[in-house]
Amino acid sequence: MTAPEAGNGGPSQAERLAAEIFSVEAGHLLVGGVRLADIAARHGTPLYVYDAAVMRRNHARLARALAGLADIHYSIKANPNPAVVAVFLAEGAGVEIASLGEYRIARAAGAAPGRILFAGPGKRRAELAAVMADGIGEIHLESFEEIARIEALAGGTAVPVAIRVNPVAEVQGGAMRMGGRPAPFGFDEEDLDAVVDRVAASSCLKLTGVHMFAGTQILDADMLAAQWTHGLAVARRVAARIGRPLDTIDLGGGLGIPYFAGEKPLDLDRLASHVPTLKAEQAADPLIRAARIVVEPGRFLVGPAGVYVAGVLAAKRSRGARFLVTDGGMHHHLAASGNLGQVIKRDYPLLAPDRVGAASAGPASVVGPLCTPLDTIARKAELPDLDEGDLVAVLQSGAYGLTASPVHFLGHPAPKEVLVDNGTVRLVGGDT
Ligand SMILES: Cc1ncc(COP(=O)(O)O)c(C=O)c1O
């Protein structure tokens, strides 16, 4: 939202985030120390800009909060740009992938096969064969057909697998729930014993772990901790059933970031306050004591690091309403248009990167070039007077941006992607 907080006329959510995540100097937004407008002038709009320092900071903060408890795997689906993946690998993260395409990106960026976990409800034969031939760390089983498919491909060595569990409802939450209700992801917790028995009886599979992913965009640290506590209980149950220790317990991702007015960042100190209890619970059971606990966030690590920048093509009025037509839109940033799973369409944090703090000229709809009313990036943006050639920037755009968008719709060119690192601006994607 760009609207000031009701009643106090203070900075908008976008202005606050701009100052907290990046920096603002004399009304100019700087990303990685470089004026966003200069980057846009050099590379053209529309454009995604990612700040490597913000990614590293988020990784370090989370690693600190979960120290001694969990290992971080970056969920590539959030942003599969190879340069982004490489940043997290260099920080020591493993990765979580959902396709052979993502596997190849991870490998090309330098991930060792053993540091890669493969989840996803529909893994094809060719995908399984390719990752198995390489010695992937673990495949997360999500259906009986998949179990049989892997068995048919397995050679002499047992394939390391985890059972993905769709947990029972009590502790589930998040803006987009993926567990705790009927879902195609993993096996229902209610059916777990039969699944464990099936996998444990297979000579081609080595049951090494369990995996849970309950939902995305969770901003409540206590809810996450409750989910993780439940995850440990499920792991204990599986280990007891097979009568031997587990190697991995993947507690999922889902850590949220603030987008809309009134949303507060996930409280990492509060999350960290749950760590001693979680560690004690793990230590209490010899069958999970030595297991490597994994979290696999995407959005939390990369979302705040990205800005989507579009140029104004026209500033017009229609029957009294203000419209800013830009060269960017839902074909590059479906999530910001509210068409990627948002029930109530609310504006992403958006500002004019060269006029931060300037007075609003009244609420504007910021729209893209597509011939559909769905192509609306903001509905009530409080932006200053902007003209053709001016810029708008959508913050919190590093996750589920470009590759979660219908890029080919209407045949506009793909946006460029730029990585800012230590003052260096590098083109890392898009038409060149
Ligand atoms: C299995 C799995 N792991 C991790 C993630 C990453 O979620 P998030 O970006 O919310 O952390 C997802 C997202 O859908 C997922 O399906």
What are the defining features of this structure?
single chain; 432 residues; Lyase, Ornithine Decarboxylase, Chain A, domain 1; TIM Barrel; nine-stranded mixed sheet; eight-stranded parallel barrel
Descriptive notes:
This protein is α/β, with parallel strands linked by helices and 432 residues long. The chain has two domains: 13-51 and 304-429, Beta Barrel (Lyase, Ornithine Decarboxylase, Chain A, domain 1); 80-297, TIM Barrel (Alpha-Beta Barrel), CATH 3.20.20. It is built from twelve helices and 23 strands. The protein has helices spanning 13-21, 36-43, 52-65, 82-90, 100-108, 125-134, 144-153, 192-200, 221-242, 268-273, 275-283, 299-302, and strands spanning 23-25, 28-31, 34-35, 47-51, 70-75, 94-97, 116-118, 138-141, 159-166, 176-177, 187-188, 205-212, 215-216, 248-250, 292-295, 306-318, 321-326, 350-351, 363-367, 376-382, 391-394, 416-421, 424-429. Strands 4, 16, 17, 18, 19, 20, 21, 22 and 23 form a nine-stranded mixed beta sheet that branches. An eight-stranded parallel β-barrel has the order 5-6-7-8-9-12-14-15, surrounded by six helices. A hairpin with a 2-residue loop joins strand 16 (306-318) and strand 17. Helix 9 (221-242) runs parallel beside helix 11 (275-283). The longest helix has 22 residues, at 221-242. The radius of gyration is 23 Å and the shape is elongated. The model is unreliable at 1-8 (pLDDT under 50). Bound molecules: pyridoxal-5'-phosphate (PLP). Pyridoxal-5'-phosphate binds at residues 75, 77-78, 96, 119, 213, 216, 252-255, 296-300, 399.
